[in-house]
Amino acid sequence: FYSCYAVFQGRKFVFGGEENPLQISVVDGCQLTRLGDLAFEFYEGACLNWSDESMVFCFDHQNNRQYH
Prior knowledge:
This protein is mainly beta. It contains no helices and six strands. The chain is globular. The two termini are 20 Å apart. The model has no long low-confidence stretch (mean pLDDT 88).
């Protein structure tokens, strides 16, 4: 809920969310596999794959004018 989804380097990722604002997970079949934690809390925001080299996170609920 309130997480961000993006395809990055051929893998489907889910970042942040209301219940898990630090989450970095990958879609593995029909389930999520937790890979680690973001260095910042992120929920109700947007994420963007930048040329398949990096990810941009912005418009977060608490920091809507900051990006990571």
